[in-house]
Design goal:
Largest sheet: 6 strands, antiparallel
Number of strands: 12
Structural class: alpha+beta
Strand order of the largest sheet: 4-2-1-3-5-6
Number of helices: 6
Helix content: 10-25%
Length: 260
């Protein structure tokens, strides 16, 4: 039976499984007894990827179906420092699974152009789970905590998603909240007001502000702005999120599940 390699982001782990992506997502989000446990995100990893850091061949040897033919759901290869030892070239599709087990696959895409001065909110998922507002565009934000740190904090790699701020992105003090679902709006406004949007590529003295040091890992998929970012060793890849209209028209079961 085929063995798949998955890089889980909630929590960080490298996993071998007999399950294809859609079935793995359902199992990982709901458990074998279909009891809701929460949304999950994971990459499919090139099955030919090998590294001295991971005991992949040993895990694959253990990833065999039961005597009755039931596929092996998961064999954990590593649960620590996974991202920094995974080359970005080994990552395939990014899968988003809802708390009810519906899974959507995203292809890697071109980094989006963004010349409009605005503020940003980034949720880090690996290797830390923090919520940060910044006046840096995604690539500069990534570099500011990895290859070109602007503070003492530095990570070997980072997976993060940009979340919608609506009117607060350009007017944090007076912008309307509208349908933003965040329960910490007052604190969010205060954090955004410390920053100023920048127009160039050079960071200012105050470029980022922590909103939550340890933030809940789940977030509303409908609030994803543009997409997801993953990088290490100076390389940054982008996985664009599908538009709401495409999700409603072409992936309606997933969209309804994500907004239940």
């Amino acid at each position: 039976m085929t063995v798949h390699l998955y890089f889980s982001l909630i929590p960080e782990a490298l996993i071998a499984s007999n399950l294809p992506p859609e079935k793995f997502g359902q199992y990982y989000a709901t458990g074998s007894d279909y009891k809701s446990k929460g949304q999950c995100l994971f990459f499919e990893v090139d099955p030919n990827f090998r590294s001295d850091y991971f005991e992949i061949d040993e895990a694959i040897a253990r990833c065999v179906p039961a005597e009755d033919g039931t596929p092996k759901h998961s064999v954990y290869i590593a649960v620590y420092r996974v991202l920094e030892h995974l080359p970005i070239s080994a990552l395939g599709k990014l899968y988003l699974t809802t708390a009810y087990g519906h899974t959507l696959g995203l292809e890697r895409g071109e980094m989006p152009a963004d010349d409009t001065p605005s503020l940003h909110m980034y949720q880090d998922l690996v290797p830390v789970n923090s919520l940060v507002v910044s006046n840096l565009k995604p690539r500069l934000f990534f570099e500011s905590v990895t290859s070109k740190p602007t503070k003492f904090i530095r990570f070997p790699g980072l997976f993060f998603v940009e979340l919608e701020l609506g009117e607060l992105a350009t007017d944090p003090e007076n912008g309307q909240v509208n349908d933003l679902p965040y329960p910490f709006i007052h604190h969010l406004r205060e954090a955004l007001m410390v920053l100023s949007p920048i127009t160039g590529d050079e960071p200012t003295t105050k470029d980022s502000k922590m909103v939550h040091r340890v933030h809940a890992l789940d977030f509303p998929y409908r609030m994803v702005k543009k997409g997801f970012y993953v990088g290490n060793d100076g390389e940054l890849a982008f996985y664009p999120m599908l538009s709401h209209s495409v999700l409603r028209d072409q992936h309606n079961p997933w969209w309804r599940s994500a907004n239940s």
